[in-house]
Amino acid sequence: MAYETILVETRGKVGLITLNRPKALNALNSQVLAELLAATQAFDANPQIGAMVLTGSDKAFAAGADIKEMQSKTYVDMYLEDFFSGWETFARTRKPIIAAVAGYALGGGCELAMMCDFIIAADTARFGQPEITLGVMPGMGGSQRLTRFVGKSKAMDMCLTGRMMDAAEAERSGLVSRVVPATELVEEALKSAAKIADFSLPAVMMVKEAVDRSYETTLAEGLRFERRLFHSTFALEDQKEGMAAFSQKRTANFRNR
Ligand code: CO8
To answer: Which GO biological process annotations does it have (predicted)?
Structure first.
């Protein structure tokens, strides 16, 4: 597929996707969604790929859903199209995706970063849910995911005032896993993704599934789910290899990676 709003490359076993609508600060329209879904689904299906990185430009990861595309829509349009529901398909990508965020991650941009598995932020990153300033509210999961990331008080503050959080506050609050200098952002994210891609792919995908489950269920159910998945790792050749390598003091040579 020829993409117009994203750039897609592979770096070894890592798929790198760069949002590329510079004139609109990577605002997320229907074309971006369609292309992102095509790219992530292709990487999911590609046995050579073990993890992905999603990034934007120095100025903006993404400045939100495309306001100009939404502006004239009516309630009936939104309801019948089930507008934004396609993003839930993105959130169900099975291989890990690291969001590498520099500059603005606002509205849908912040929500997209939160749909990834973890966020590495440049020191220039700024996160916000400014929908309230447009007379609407978050519609791609912001009121739900941000609350789970940073807690009720900060999520209310962000969604009700529309203020932005800088990278240091985002790290303090648990929204991002770490902050790196802007010049090193993509390389750092690629390095982490390459590390993940070097482990056993089924084990990696089970970790993602189990951690995601903690968002959707009770602790008791989540623990049961984790234990069943953990038991199933003993059906993997990679479990035999990983544990043998540890005992023999050598590096594991995983077959499924
Ligand atoms: N949508 C469309 N175009 C955008 C967007 C956007 N979200 N953000 C920026 N752009 C465009 C600008 O219109 C401008 O285009 P042009 O050159 O044609 O005028 C270009 O990008 C550059 O932007 P600025 O000139 O504004 O750049 P600045 O550096 O001055 O400002 C900001 C950068 C602060 C990021 C500013 O662009 C801004 O505030 N953008 C909007 C941020 C925002 O409100 N995002 C939330 C959008 S709504 C959303 O994501 C979810 C809505 C949920 C609705 C639920 C419905 C069901």
So the answer is: fatty acid beta-oxidation
Could you report the predicted ipTM of this complex, rounded to two decimals?
0.94
> Is 15 marked active-site?
no
Query: How far is ligand 1, taken at its centre, from the CA of residue 141, in Å?
Result: 18
Domain enclosing residue 230, as ranges: 200-248
Give residue 35's pLDDT. 98
State whether the beta carbon of 132 lies less than 6 angstroms from ligand 1.
Answer: no
| Active-site choice (15, 56, 63, 111) | 111
Instruction: Report the predicted TM-score, pTM, of the whole model to 2 decimal places.
Output: 0.95
Catalytic pick from 65, 100, 113, 189?
Answer: 65
- Burial string for 75-90 (b: 16+ CB within 10 Å, else e) reads eeeeeeeebbeebeeb
Instruction: Indicate if 31 and 124 belong to the same structural domain.
Output: yes
219 and 105 in a single domain? The answer is no
Q: Which pLDDT score is estimated for 240?
A: 96
Residue spans of beta strands (DSSP E) within the chain: 6-11, 14-19, 51-55, 60-62, 97-101, 104-106, 118-122, 126-128, 164-166, 178-180
pLDDT, tens only, 98-109: 999 999 999 999
The answer on 161 and 139 residing in a single domain is yes
What is the predicted pLDDT for the residue at 1? 76
| C-beta 65 within 6 A of ligand 1 | yes
Give the atom of ligand 1 at the shortest distance from the alpha carbon of 108. 50
Q: Is 65 among the catalytic positions? A: yes
